[in-house]
């Protein structure tokens, strides 16, 4: 099982930063949060700071751990530790072209209506109280599942 980290980066308008994966990568074209694998010998807190900087050039922000999930997808299972941070509206985002092809700021109210959101993101946001309840997570239509393991609250 792979240990990954992800950061829900919010601006002062309450929008979340999403990065679009390259079309030829696993999950290509899908929108996800900044994040990635925890390297051998690295802890999750260090990994998220590194990944956030590598993928967006954002650094020196207060990052708070939200908790962890087990995400089962068609291609495998990951253990994901999620974080949250708030940045000013004028924060510059520089996407690493080796990893992503675009970025956007999305209002959470429209998340369930968007196409190509990464597996389980709505469920993870709901589990941490960042969006309201909903009937069905459209990102899990392929049989994927999300299980809350731990909440830092």
Number of strands: 8
User: What is the CATH third-level topology name?
Assistant: Nucleoside Triphosphate Pyrophosphohydrolase
CATH architecture: Alpha-Beta Complex
Order of strands in the sheet with the most strands? 4-1-6-5-8
CATH class category label = Alpha Beta
Query: How would you name the CATH homologous superfamily?
Result: Nucleoside Triphosphate Pyrophosphohydrolase
Q: Helix coverage percent of residues?
A: 10-25%
What does this structure look like?
This protein has helices at residues 44-56, 121-127, and strands at 2-11, 15-21, 31-32, 35-37, 64-73, 76-87, 100-107, 145-151. It is mainly β and 153 residues long. The protein has a single domain, classed as Nucleoside Triphosphate Pyrophosphohydrolase, CATH 3.90.79.10. The strands form 2 sheets. The protein has a 5-stranded mixed β-sheet, with helices on both faces. It has a 3-stranded antiparallel β-sheet with strand order 3-2-7, with no helix packed on it. A hairpin with a 2-residue loop joins β5 (64-73) and β6. The mean pLDDT is 93.
């Amino acid at each position: 099982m792979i240990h990954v980290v992800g950061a829900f980066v919010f601006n002062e308008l309450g929008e979340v930063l999403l990065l679009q994966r390259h079309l030829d990568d696993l999950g290509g074209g899908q929108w996800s949060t900044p994040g990635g694998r925890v390297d051998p010998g690295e802890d999750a807190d260090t990994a998220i700071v590194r990944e956030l900087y590598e993928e967006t050039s954002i650094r020196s922000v207060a990052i708070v751990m939200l908790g962890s999930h087990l995400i089962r997808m068609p291609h495998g299972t990951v253990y994901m530790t999620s974080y949250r941070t708030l940045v000013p509206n004028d924060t510059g985002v520089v996407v690493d072209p080796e990893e992503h092809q675009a970025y956007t700021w999305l209002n959470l109210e429209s998340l369930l209506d968007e196409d190509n959101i990464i597996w389980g993101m709505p469920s993870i946001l709901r589990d941490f109280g960042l969006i309201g309840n909903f009937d069905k997570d459209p990102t899990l239509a392929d049989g994927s599942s999300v299980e809350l393991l731990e909440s830092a609250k």
